[in-house]
Amino acid sequence: MKCSIGFFATIPMAVLFVTVGLGYLFGKLRVGPIQLGGVCGTLIVALVLGQTGCQLHGELKEVAFALFIFAMGYSGGPQFFANLNRSTLRYMVLPLIEAVVVLAVVLAAVSLLGLDAGTAAGLAAGAATESAVVGTAAEALRHLGLEPSGMARLEANIATAYTLTYLVGLISIVFFTSQIAPVLLGINLRTASKEMAASMEAATEDDVASQPALPRIVGRAFRVEKAVGLAIEALEHEIGGRTLVIGLFRHGVAAEPTPGQVLVAGDVIALIGRRDRLVKAGGLIGPETLLPEGHSDALQLAQREVIVGERAVNGFTLSELFRTGTSMHLRAVWIQRVTRSHLSLPITPGTRLQYGDHVTLVGVEPMLSAVVRQLGKEATTTDVTDLVFLCVGILLGLAVGSLTLKVGGIPLSLGSGGGALLSGLVFGWINFRRPAIGAIPQASVQLLKDLGLATFVACVGLSAGPDAIVLIREHGAVIPLIGLAVSLGPACLSLWIGHKVLKIEGPLLIGAIAGQHVSTPAISAIMAKSQSSVPLLGYTVTYAIANVMLPVLGPVIVGLAHVIR
Q1: Distance CA 120, CA 165 (A)
Q2: Residue 559: inside a domain, yes or no?
Q3: Residue 138: closest CA among 237, 64, 216
Q4: Which helix (H) or strand (E) holds 341?
Q5: Which of 2, 175, 241, 548 pairs with 297 at a CA distance of 20 to 30 A?
Q6: Which pairs with CB-CB distance under 8 Å and at least 24 residues apart come from 280-284?
Q7: Rounded to an integer, what is the distance from CA 252 to the centroid of its chain?
Q8: 116 inside domain
């Protein structure tokens, strides 16, 4: 570390925290769905401070990136492997299109404009808005056998090209998916999403709202006076909102509340459901009352969160699960939320569960515990990180990344970044299948990802220094234009192939394109435009695959661009 400016000259490491802090503050600026983000903000601040001569040297950036990329693989492992199945096969084509087109456009620019390997990798990272490529590409430079000064220049070009193209890639993919793609498909995104939700038999509008306010679930008991002769299934449908009859008492004796059971005068029924629905239920059933003595615990609701992990559940829709032999268990439980990749999915009979999904359940015992066992394992929280597991995982990743394969004389290697990503995926899956092994709290994983990448890009940006100005003068106006092609080329091709060949429904296809671009702002804009979370069902699949596939482009682009040029 070195810096000759005032306070920083005395405490050089302070420049790191100033850079990251200001970068994340700058990255909070938002215009509609567009937000610069902490990583890009940090890189911009680092490039500016780098003009003063402040730099960070040593192994800090390599350590920071190894922690980040392992944590990214660890958190994404369950979803990545869960999406490698036949039901998602057609969606897997889209991330592949993204990777191939990005690679083709970037290498064409290298050939036509003479871009160096660093600029090419930074262009891909920024235009595809995949920050991890910055790290995997920078690490790959070490395998080119360059002089230290030449490697430093290429590394600086990665940072500069990324900064020049990131905003172009971000704005273009948000605008394309939310505004242009629906027009090209000839659909009204909101109407199409609503129609698709109806075809999936969404229970209520709240199930598909872009930001659903989760209703408070309550239990009530009513004496049957007005619903005489009505079957339980029909009554639940009349009340709506996924209301469930969980108890039936006839002449003070508990009876099985089957869907076809016909109600008679004097029956007492126990229901759980949304408060606003049950408040009005008395008008359909009769007066609210107390449960018979000794049965008051029938309305004692509990909430549990389960992580889907059973093979018999993975890939099945909620409707299909209801038709299994344990459907009565599911009938007695209210599925309040299904979360995948930290996003809430629409709750419909057509919603397909997969490994790693977090499902929040509300119900009564013993049915609630039975459903937890049927779906997977109850989510547990821990405050302790298994550092042995973390270190072993990173060491194995570094060992795998050190292996080099020559193809046509071109040295190809995953590098330490790619190796750590691969080991993170495997170790994340191991922890998912065996929670007692390798526990790393979610908050710790997120900190490793955020601080690790921010520290890495701060080091790269500060070291770029005056080299950034040289690249801007040489290619400044051209690089953003190429970035537009890198961003929109894969999106346009995926839209055509997804619609014409793969026959993916419009809302799902648009969400999937946002996912192949790993763009959270894009899916946010799509959900706001559609007023629906239906596009998330396409987004989560391609996001999980692209989040692993795109970082691998870093070493590939560096190796091929170096040979071509």
Answers
A1: 11
A2: yes
A3: 64
A4: none
A5: 241
A6: 280/239, 281/220, 281/222, 281/239, 281/243, 282/222, 283/226, 284/226, 284/227, 284/235, 284/238, 284/239
A7: 50
A8: yes
CA distance 264 to 256: 14
Q: What are phi and psi of 210, to 5 degrees?
A: -65, -30
pLDDT in tens, the chain (565 residues): 555 565 555 666 788 888 888 888 988 877 766 777 888 888 888 888 877 766 676 678 788 888 998 998 888 888 787 777 676 788 889 999 999 999 999 999 998 888 888 889 999 998 988 888 888 888 888 777 778 778 888 888 888 888 888 888 888 999 999 999 999 999 999 999 888 877 775 544 444 443 344 446 788 889 998 888 889 888 888 888 678 888 888 888 888 888 888 898 989 988 888 788 888 888 889 998 888 877 776 677 788 888 888 877 877 887 777 766 445 566 667 787 888 877 788 877 778 888 888 888 887 777 788 888 888 888 777 778 889 999 999 999 888 887 777 666 666 667 777 788 889 999 988 888 887 788 888 888 889 988 988 888 888 877 776 666 666 677 667 888 898 999 999 999 999 999 999 999 999 999 999 999 988 888 888 988 888 888 988 898 898 889 888 888 888 898 888 887 6
Residue of 420, 426, 428, 378 lying closest to 400 (CA atoms): 420
Burial code of 51-70, b = ≥16 C-beta within 10 A, e = fewer?
Answer: eeebbbeeebbbebbbbbbb
Give CA–CA dist 159/463, Å, rounded.
10
Q: Which amino acid is at 537?
A: L
Give the β-pairing of 358-363 and 333-340.
Answer: antiparallel
Cβ-based neighbour number of residue 230 at 10 Å = 18
Cα four-point dihedral sign 12, 457, 71, 525: positive
At residue 38's C-alpha, the angle toward residues 3 and 395, to 5°, is: 80
* Structural domain includes residue 440: no
Measured CA distances, 519 to 23, 97, 266, 478 (Å): 20, 16, 57, 24
Is the residue at 357 inside a domain?
A: no
Domain count, the chain: 1
